[in-house]
């Protein structure tokens, strides 16, 4: 089995180079829409059926996404494979030294760096 580890910037360059009709911004928009829908549905019910609301609560989730080619072969649709509470951030911290600071600033200080964090 070959394991390829790369930064997301390199993935985007390779994806758009290999598939010139595919634009990452369009894929990313679909992924964000899917995530927002899942999170809204998950928080629309009270616990234990849903995620209860609490203004003091903070969380970070890891999401596994697969891009599936549509039947016409010209576009992709994101498939959310799983969402994990408190994901392993080892690689993110290795690739992006300020990752932990960015997460802390976002979750606890409400200091959101729009260049690094996307609002859904």
Brief rundown of the structure:
This protein is an alpha+beta fold and 120 residues long. The protein is built from 4 helices and 2 strands, in the order ααββαα.
Task: Describe what this molecule looks like in 3D.
By secondary structure, the chain is of the alpha+beta class. Helices cover 38% and strands 16% of the residues. The chain is built from 4 helices and 2 strands; from the N terminus they run H-H-E-E-H-H. The mean pLDDT is 90.
Tell me the layout of helices and strands.
Elements (H helix, E strand, L loop, with lengths): L7 H11 L5 H19 L18 E9 L6 E10 L4 H6 L3 H10 L12
Antiparallel strand pairs: 1-2
Q: Any key phrases for this structure?
A:
120 residues, alpha+beta, 16% strand
How helix-rich are the residues, as a percent range? 25-40%
Task: Write down the overall mean pLDDT.
Answer: 90
Q: Kindly report how far apart the N and C termini lie.
A: 35 Å
Q: Based on helices, strands and strand pairing, what is the structural class?
A: alpha+beta
Count of runs of 4 or more consecutive helical residues: 4
User: Tell me, what's the shape?
Assistant: globular
Number of strands: 2
Biggest beta sheet attributes: 2 strands, antiparallel
Query: Which residue ranges are poorly predicted, with pLDDT under 50 across at least 5 consecutive positions?
Result: none
Beta-strand percent range: 15-25%
Physical arrangement of strands within the biggest beta sheet: 1-2
Roughly how many Å is the radius of gyration?
16 Å
Give helix and strand order, one letter per element, not per position: HHEEHH
């Amino acid at each position: 089995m070959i394991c390829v580890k790369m930064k997301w910037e390199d993935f985007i360059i390779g994806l758009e180079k290999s598939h010139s009709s595919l634009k990452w911004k369009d894929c990313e928009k679909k992924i964000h829409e899917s995530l927002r829908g899942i999170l809204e549905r998950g928080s629309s019910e009270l616990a234990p059926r849903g995620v209860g609301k609490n203004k003091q609560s903070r969380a970070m989730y890891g999401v596994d996404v697969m891009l599936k080619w549509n039947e016409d072969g010209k576009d992709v649709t994101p498939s959310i494979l799983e969402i994990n509470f408190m994901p392993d951030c080892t690689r993110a911290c290795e690739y992006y030294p300020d990752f932990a600071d960015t997460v802390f600033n976002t979750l606890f200080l409400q200091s959101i760096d729009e260049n690094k964090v996307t609002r859904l």
